[in-house]
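FW: tagging you since you asked about this chain on Friday. Here's the raw sequence from the shared folder, copied in full. Didn't touch anything.
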Amino acid sequence: MLKPILLVEDDARDLELTLLALERSQLANEVIVVRDGAQALEYLRREGSFEGRGEGNPAVVLLDLKLPKVNGLEVLQAVRGDPTMRSLPVVMLTSSQEETDVVRSYELGVNAYVVKPVEFKQFVSAIADLGVFWAVLNEPPPGSTRASRRYE
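HL: got it, structure written out here
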């Protein structure tokens, strides 16, 4: 069973495009969608409506910066402050090119900062590449559980 990808996105258009791009990349990973930072933390901590979800962290968190309730930087800070999630790959996926956002994200320990391309084909290509890299190619940190794969 493959580990899911957690997509944290509040903008309906960006959400639709991201899901389309991940689908086109033909990843078999389930994509869990939450629409704000508070839901993201509930999912990761297995709280609230997510308390019954299975053990383990997702393969990667694709995290928007500007989110309602709890913003992306606050989510990132909470993830890096929790020993059970500290090594979880987090990619900031945002339209912000503000230097302060980039710098703060890296200070808090983001693994990558990706500015959403405006052009549709570039957006689809960028998201597909992200999905393949983090869900398939990336080797998780020691001590992480990697979902086993069967090739028949």
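FW: DSSP finds five helices and five strands in the chain.
HL: agreed, and Residues 142-152 have pLDDT under 50 and may be disordered.
FW: great, closing this out.
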